[in-house]
Design a protein that fits this description.
Elements (H helix, E strand, L loop, with lengths): L3 E2 L10 H10 L10 H21 L6 E4 L2 H8 L11 E5 L4 H4 L8 E3 L9 H8 L5 E4 L13 H10 L3 E5 L11 H4 L3 E5 L10 E5 L27 H39 L4 E2 L10 E5 L5 H10 L2 E2 L1 E2 L12 H5 L4 H4 L2 E5 L6 H20 L1
Parallel strand pairs: 1-11, 3-4, 3-5, 5-6, 6-7
Antiparallel strand pairs: 2-8, 7-8, 9-10, 10-13, 12-13
Helix pairs in contact: 1-8, 2-8, 5-6, 8-12
């Protein structure tokens, strides 16, 4: 059997439609040029922008293409917005590093998580007392555990306090409804390579002009209507547009299929290792994500052993640099360090199938047995 790739929350496999769109766009001109070649490039960008705008129910000018989630977070998490002066930044206790470190505030105040990994709304209420124009950054779903956050409820509290909500929808896009209507957020940002598009491109999507940054993060030639300078990556944007179209057409059925596969794998893991700990199992989770630990088996050793056996998964405590570091979200959930060190994540994507799930259980059993003997 070919290698089994179960790490789609890190990067999903490039969809054929996205690959085809990128290849077709590689010879496009500079989208700022007024000649025919430039107009053709501009048309590709605006087509992709229109797809996103229509799906999120906003005008196209409220969609700004970026290089991905990290740039988007740095762009939108600023005190000075067009219609707001935000004085306090609150972030969920399990936010991605691009949010925790990628902002323009002096410091961020983390809001606690409960034992299931969901934002503690009572702690949020307490932190909103006497706060002037807060900005809350809260992911729609956690990248490690897959736990879906109560963004709608949190947004209502923040709006009552006169604040703004920025939602990291990177893991949610194509997996659950992360529209403005569903989340109640004011700003969303997404990343292409999580849905089978190319790496290095994403978008910040604004519900209205008042929540756009007062000043561009990247200043230069005035591209993206002055909101993001730099020559647009036409091929990558075209690939994002194609992947997004496919997700809109097939995502619901895909998630039903992957949810069943995830549940099958989770049942197999529990049958193999009754001592296994599934993180966030009592909370709503993304259909494609399973985070668990096999106590006594260090994650980095197990990930390496599975890799040798042809299976790609990740450690729940792996940071973006690839180095093993303590998991902030598991710590915020109160998971003991000796369990957190054993955390693994399986994240499924569009190419995965049931035979892979069956094979994984067999391979995991073999690797576990070998490690326990040692």
């Amino acid at each position: 059997m070919a290698r089994i790739y179960f790490d789609h929350n890190a990067t999903s496999t490039l969809r054929p439609a996205a690959r085809a769109a990128m290849i077709a766009a590689l010879d496009a001109g500079n989208a700022s040029s007024v000649h025919a070649e430039g107009r053709a490039a501009r048309a590709l960008i605006e087509t992709a922008r229109a797809h996103l705008a229509r799906a999120f129910g906003v005008k196209p000018e409220l969609v700004v293409f970026t290089s991905g989630a990290t740039e988007s977070a740095n762009m939108v998490l600023q005190p000075a917005l067009a219609g707001y002066a935000c004085e306090t930044l609150l972030i969920g206790g399990g936010e991605h590093p691009c949010v925790a470190a990628g902002h323009g505030f002096g410091a961020a105040s983390p809001v606690a998580l409960d034992a299931d990994g969901r934002l503690d709304l009572n702690d949020l209420r307490a932190r909103l007392v006497d706060v002037v124009t807060p900005l809350l950054a809260l992911q729609a779903a956690n990248n490690e555990t897959g736990v879906i956050q109560p963004v709608t409820e949190a947004a209502a509290l923040v709006h009552d306090a006169g604040g703004v909500v920025v939602c990291d929808a990177v893991q949610a896009l194509g997996r659950i409804d992360c529209s403005f209507e569903a989340t109640g957020a004011d700003v969303l940002f997404v990343s292409s390579h999580k849905i089978g598009g190319p790496k290095g491109v994403g978008a910040a999507i604004f519900s209205r002009r008042a929540v756009m940054p007062a000043q561009a993060l990247l200043r230069g030639g005035g591209q993206e209507r002055g909101k993001r300078g730099g020559t647009e990556n036409v091929a990558a944007i075209a690939g994002l547009g194609a992947a997004f179209q496919e997700v809109c057409a097939t995502g619901a059925d895909e998630m039903v299929r992957l949810g069943a596969l995830r549940d099958r794998i989770e049942a197999d893991v529990r049958a193999l290792a009754p001592e296994a700990v599934a993180f966030g199992a009592n909370a709503p989770r993304l259909p494609n994500t399973l985070a668990f630990a096999l106590p006594g088996l260090p994650a980095e050793t197990l990930v390496a052993a599975l890799d040798v056996e042809g299976v790609a998964i990740s450690s729940g405590s792996a940071c973006s640099s690839g180095k093993v570091a303590p998991s902030a979200v598991l710590a915020a959930m109160g998971i003991p360090p000796e369990i957190s060190r054993c955390a693994l994540r399986i994240s499924l994507g569009w190419p995965n199938n049931e035979p892979e799930g069956v094979a994984f259980a067999t391979i995991l059993a073999r690797v576990r047995h070998r490690m326990q003997r040692r």
